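S.,

Sequence below, as promised.
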Amino acid sequence: MQPLIDHARSFGRRPEDFASLAHGQSPQVLFITCSDSRVVPALITGARPGELFELRTAGNIVPPYASDRPTSEAATVEYAVDVLGVSEIVVCGHSHCGAVGALVRGEDLDAVPAVRDWLAQAEPPSDMPDDDPAVADAVRNHVLAQLLRLREYPCVQRAMTTGQLRLHGWYYEVHTGSVRAYTPDTDSFEAL
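The prediction came back faster than expected:
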């Protein structure tokens, strides 16, 4: 913990670097990714403060839209699209994902009921090998499923219909640092 505290103490020593942030934010991208500590959106993208609006959930799960049951995830997506006016949404999955791995392997999660119930919102990727520690194919399929789910959100539908919003699926390899993006033309994830 001490290295984190030391960095936090020195972080704000150049307030002029941050003064403009007090006037608001105008990110162009909503970046939806996993809560995993190995996935650091600003490090992956090189974004500076104010450039990414982030939504981090276990397994980068986008829950189904339900107007009668608001979620913080739905509120974040709606705020990003309707208030901040982001023009891009990236759903970024990652290799060695514990959440997707648990789904693929059908792990017993009764000891962690909140995790079990959260993951129940995701469809287990079907016909995926359960012996791949990176769960690469399962994660990529999971990313595509979350993109489909995002399309069910009314704010996303409206913005896409008017051409104001584009969706992207990314796959990040934690063991190499490489990023692949889904390309609809080839129906595959290709190097950026």
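Strands lie at 29-34, 52-57, 88-94, 166-172, 179-183, 188-191.

Coffee later?
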